[in-house]
Amino acid sequence: MRVHIPRAVLFLHAFPSNKDMYSAQFSALEKEGIPYIALDYPGFGHEPPLAGDVSIASLTDFVVAKINSFGVKKVVPVGDSMGGYIIFEMFRRYRELLAGLVFVATRAEAESPEGKKARYEIIERVKREGKDFLVDVMLEAQTSPATKEDKNKMCRLRAMMEAATEEGIIKTMRAIAERRDSRKLLKEIELPTLVVAGKDDEKVTPPEIVKRIADGIKGARYYELERAAHLPPFENPEDFNRVLLDFLKAL
Question: Which CATH number does 5-250 carry?
Answer without folding.
Answer: 3.40.50.1820
